[in-house]
């Protein structure tokens, strides 16, 4: 199969917050179809759609009750097929979110499974007897608060849910369950989708002995060594590739919250026939404290560079990288890694984009990133919608681990709703997202940050992304060049080169609001500048090249 996704750029749509076509306050499929020409203009190749399947929305669609139906709020299967047709006409591919570590507890499989120990769907989920004292098999903490085990009165057993109790984990040990999943995947591929982003796919194989984990601050234990990258995960992915994906020219990316470079090599080495690439979490976890993202500490550029370099070098010859600053679970890229104050917002956004898009791998752009959307601060917890933030607020404040003020500050910095406020299309009411009442508040800065204004300004972030996306198509060195980090100990700049045959690409980025000097041994002024966020050519003094605040340049030396 071709490796068309190597020079492709993927754009992530979080449908609920993208564009509402019928005024009910919720983004929908027809809203997406309407905006496909906008995405075409940006120049992306693939759209990754966060889940659009039938769901009771405990976790905004990551709790699926029917994999073969479209969520009522998002429209109909007919709307979906229209969207696919229109995407095809524009030569845009659609990548679906595959959430098969768990389903909703309202999925027919779980409804059956729960009926009795002898039901033929019982083995589709993970059921365990209580300990002799009635307690659950382990004290493992669930990702969204509380225990991973939920007691079921009817059958007097516990079921496992690594996320919320409305997201029971599927039992991948069941052959029948796996075959049903593969069948479902083939149905979507037959419809014409281009592939899958696989939700927490390195969590599907559990240690069958369910050992107790180490104690956490909350009183629960850490079960993660026993469910990440488990004993059969590679066998399952190879089987999935054989039985669901082979014969289709797909793009696959595995979301992997806990993965090392060495493990990623196993997941993505071509000859092993598992996945094309993975999303690791190393850079988005920078600054995590003892309560993880809820006790954020400042992060260091040298650490970020070390992380990216480890992945660039590690997957240089084996496997392939995916590149991202943000997604629907993360704060906005600019607020997290750049500078979201108006003076430097667009400029630092361009710098971040340069830094990421010149790396080796497939870049992912999260909706709104291309216009420089920022984090939001709602004054009341009532304005938040994400179960992760809401549950953590209650659990951590009730246990006295954080004050309410500290928790709100943490939500402002790292909460998932930062990424989920509506896409800002214009300076009209509700940012042009809906004519009704949006399901989550619009970021009040839509009056200055919106698509309409970005399209009207030649030097906007939007057109800068457009140019970066195009460069990848026209310069093989951006796709294939070998990566080398320069100035690894500097806390202010990220400088690297890419080398292919006799060509060298130099990427210079300043992560600070100060002018800094870099003493490079290259005649940059004489070479081609492929892209920069500055109005002027780079200047050289006796001390070296001058990089202004958040400045970025890319040079091609032949
Ligand atoms: O995310 C997996 C995941 O690890 C995150 O939920 C993470 O725990 C949290 O967001 C960061 O603290 C995937 C989806 O992307 C996410 O939206 C879902 O909630 C989750 O799986 C469950 O399906
Ligand atoms: Ca709608």
Automatic annotation (TrEMBL):
Protein name per its UniProtKB record: oligo-1,6-glucosidase
Pfam families assigned to the protein according to its UniProt record, in alphabetical order: Alpha-amylase (PF00128), Malt_amylase_C (PF16657)
Record family assignment: Belongs to the glycosyl hydrolase 13 family.
Biological process terms in GO annotation: oligosaccharide catabolic process
InterPro entries: GH, GH13_cat_dom, Glyco_hydro_b, Malt_amylase-like_C, O16G_dom_2
Enzyme nomenclature, EC number: 3.2.1.10
Gene Ontology terms, MF aspect: alpha-amylase activity; oligo-1,6-glucosidase activity
Entry's localization field: Cytoplasm
Occurrences of domain Glycosyl hydrolase family 13 catalytic (ranges): 12-420
Cellular component, GO annotation: cytoplasm
